[in-house]
Write a structure and sequence with these properties.
Three copies of one chain form a homotrimer.
Chain A lengths: L2 E6 L6 H17 L8 E6 L5 E3 L2 E2 L3 E8 L7 H15 L9 E8 L5 E3 L10 H9 L6
Parallel strand pairs in A: 1-2, 5-6
Antiparallel strand pairs in A: 1-5, 3-4
């Protein structure tokens, strides 16, 4: 489910940084009960000549888009808290390194989503718990 | 209309594979009555150090996002069948090669979409049929 | 807010072209009252072997996706005019260079969006005007 695209300046992150960043994002969703393999994080290194903020080449901005599929939250306060808690995950990889950062979460239809040719099981079901335990899209 | 982003491991597809894959996707939509040139497929080769699944570098996963514009389906059963039939298109390029795969379809507003500075004609109209025949965004 | 992804053929744009293109896009939103730094434009050079239109490798197509966050327009006529006026911004960088072009605007939830760990101020508020003046996500 969550698909993260992280657009970042050249050299902003080492291979270890990227692995740590992806692991921290994964932990966030695993705590919420999602299978770890749902979390896909793609890093895109973008040179300043291809990355413009306010019409000017940017060397210190991280721009992130997140797509949520498995869980859609309706209640305004919970939406706010979720967004703020994801921001907390970002801080060590952005603000604490002197980088600007902006992110947005998009909501993609749950019923137009498949993994390994299977329909992801409903939130909180036994089948979803089995996917968590196996960390794989096993038959159910 | 349909815009496909295919994120894949390094070396997963040859140039011929990519052309075949894109052609198979295009055939799917052409059968549904869409102009072939509506179908745009972008391949993104992503090294394992930029591609994380469940917090771990991934070398055998294909992650696909699809954006639909020309047709939006409302009826739940038809949405399900459409998604399953797109999965069938993916199988030869994923499961049959020992690759994991996940895809999602997003629905982008039809009224905020232009091609060649023109408004794409309504579904099933004579103008759309003329675009199919010309395989181009001709005046109408 | 607006996040632009511009997928273009190899060599279609020089560094200066890209800066000019991004500056023209930025001017469009600044005129509408948005802070300039909201406008992020990412260029993606895609070789023909990764870029398929209608199932065929494409060397002369520019495919653009735009994500809107700060302002969502409801009224159909205004949506139409906005889309057409964005198309006008594209013409010098597409049609006038003999390139095909297609773009779509997506609407991402405003309440799932943060910049520099802050909630972007409401449309037309004094706080938003302060962000415009500072061209930065200052405390408010």
């Amino acid at each position: 489910m969550p698909l993260w695209h992280i657009h970042h300046p050249v050299g902003a992150y080492s291979a270890q940084d990227k692995q740590d960043f992806a692991a921290d994002i994964t932990k966030y969703y695993a705590k919420a009960g999602l299978p770890e393999f749902y979390v896909v994080v793609l890093f895109h290194e973008v040179p300043a000549s291809d990355f413009y903020v306010g019409g000017k080449p940017a060397e210190d901005t991280v721009r992130i888009t997140v797509s949520h599929l498995a869980r859609h939250i309706d209640e305004p306060d919970r939406r706010k808290r979720m967004t703020e808690s994801l921001n907390v995950v970002l801080v060590p990889y952005t603000r604490d390194r002197g980088l600007h950062w902006e992110f947005q979460i998009e909501e993609s239809p749950r019923d137009l989503w498949m993994i390994e040719g299977r329909w992801p099981p409903g939130a909180g079901t036994d089948a979803e718990k089995a996917w968590v335990a196996a960390n794989a899209a096993i038959p159910y």
